[in-house]
Amino acid sequence: MLLENKNAVIYGGGGSIGGAVARAFAREGARVFLAGRTLATLETVAEDIAASGGMAETAPVDALDEESVDRHADAMADEAGGIDVSFNAIGHGDVHGAPLADMPFEDFFRPIQTAMRAQFLTARAAARHMVKRGRGVILAITATTARKSLPDVGGTGVAFDAIESLCRQWACELGPHGVRVVWLQTTGIPEAIARNVERFPDYGTGSGGMTREELIAWLQRDTMLNRLTSLSEVASVAAFMASDHASAVTASGANITCGSIPTR
Prior knowledge:
Shape: globular
């Protein structure tokens, strides 16, 4: 198993992406610590993992609260003997559908502020324990909007771009201590696209808005494989990048965009 005897914390572990990654980590032998603000959703994921023979624990943690993050990381490290993997999959509160000229600053800045605060606090909490042991992997997730110029996405692209830049800085500072920092770069993920939204923005297509099915079809046309990244692919790649099989990879994104962003 890829992550046997590893201790992994997943922030946002009750969400679709965090839950999928947590299940994959557990299948690969990791002891999983699910952290998030809603205990009920964390417990659902933990029950699934336990039913499959895995190990999972839950704790209410606000990734934007410095004391909460540090306290949880310290308690986890004390209980488990250390932190091997940290993955941040919390939402950023993105606002889409309006041009920047018409968008309140608060709506534009929210995803940037949320992403930077959560990524910094969770990475720092894990890094402090990883450095002591001389090993560890910090993982983040971004999307094609970090590299493409799209209208009406507010601060989303800026937030993802900032995450990648922050990961590179963490990587250069933590590399000498044996700690790797990697992000997963994805397309939109169909299973994670809300089903209760009646109409999505048109993102510059001039359509006046798109249904969920139309949005997915539009996103697919931008890829070389004519499909989007699946949750299972995100989870599988996350498990591989967190494992010793990827021990030479740091300060880099795993491009799983189905060819939407060719690697130069």
